[in-house]
Amino acid sequence: MTTSAGEIEIELWSKEAPLACRNFVQLCLEGYYNKTVFHRVIPGFIVQGGDPLGTGEGGASIYGKPFKDEFHSRLRFVRRGLVAMANAGANDNSSQFFFTLGPCKELNNKHTIFGKVAGDTLYNLPRFEEGDIGKNDRPVYPHSIIKTEVLLNPFPDIVPRETIANEIPKEERKKKKKGVKNFSLLSFGGEAEEDEAEVISATKAIGGSGGSEPSLVEAPGNSKETTNTTQK
Questions:
Q1: Catalytic site residue 45?
Q2: Which of 3, 47, 48, 111 has CB atoms 3.0–4.6 Å from 84's, for a disulfide?
Q3: Residue 183 known to be catalytic
Q4: Polar residues: which segments have biased composition (predicted)?
Q5: Is 143 a known active-site residue?
């Protein structure tokens, strides 16, 4: 994924969260996220995007309706760099997602974790926290997604729909969709060891408090796929 804050490489956990991963991959292939903004930032907590309206009240899934949550006992909100679905309630996932900027344990079993920010691109996450934050956690000058590129597709059967990138469906214009900008708890604004060592090292270098304890979270193995995000 290419963003105005830098490149973000996302490793997907398609076995643990197949619905969320398929949805994310297809939307990336279709250019759905291109030129959209990260409309919500809570420093030390989350940065949220994926809404073509840029308001926190838009977005649609590839399934034609909201899809169900996918919780996994080994995937917990204990550190920086996790990728998860934003929602307005249980089983109400669409296109919006967020990156964690630190531990968010109150979100466990409320939001589907479907991947992580990989490699050195983890160092770009703090850039989302820079700058002034206005009303409703909206950045005064929000960062944006320039384009997305799927480097390794775990779903070879996906056929991108004939859509114009970021075109807002007519039905979405007509009806006001309930927003997902307020999380239920955010109203106030085999590779495990190697994986965790990498994250802890990167987090220490960043100087944040988003490190995870290997004993508390295990990264799933043998299911990693990569989506490369490019920034503006």
A1: yes
A2: 111
A3: no
A4: 223-232
A5: no
Question: On the CB side of 50, how many CA atoms lie within 13 Å of its CA?
Answer: 27
What does the block give as tokens for 55? Answer: 């308001």
Provide the terminal-to-terminal Cα distance of the chain, rounded to the nearest Å.
Answer: 10
Domains of the chain (ranges, CATH numbers): 2-231 (2.40.100.10)
pLDDT band at 169 (very low <50, low <70, confident <90, very high): low
Active site residue 40: yes
Q: Identify the pLDDT of residue 144.
A: 98
Report yes or no: 113 and 75 within 8 Å, Cβ to Cβ.
yes
Dig out the tokens for 54 from the structure: 């840029």
Which of 75, 82, 101, 107 does the annotation list as catalytic?
107
The token pair that represents 225 in the structure block = 């796929």
In angstroms, rounded to a whole number, what is the distance separating the alpha carbons of residues 204 and 89?
33
Active site residue 153: no
Q: What is the pLDDT of residue 203?
A: 42
Give me the catalytic one of 22, 24, 38, 40.
40
Q: Which of these is catalytic: 97, 98, 99, 128?
A: 98
Q: Distances from the Cα of 218 to the Cαs of 159, 168, 204, 213, in angstroms?
A: 32, 38, 19, 9
Which region among 53-62, 113-122, 204-213 has the lowest average model confidence (pLDDT)?
Answer: 204-213
DSSP 22: H
Of the residues 45, 67, 77, 99, only one is catalytic, namely: 45
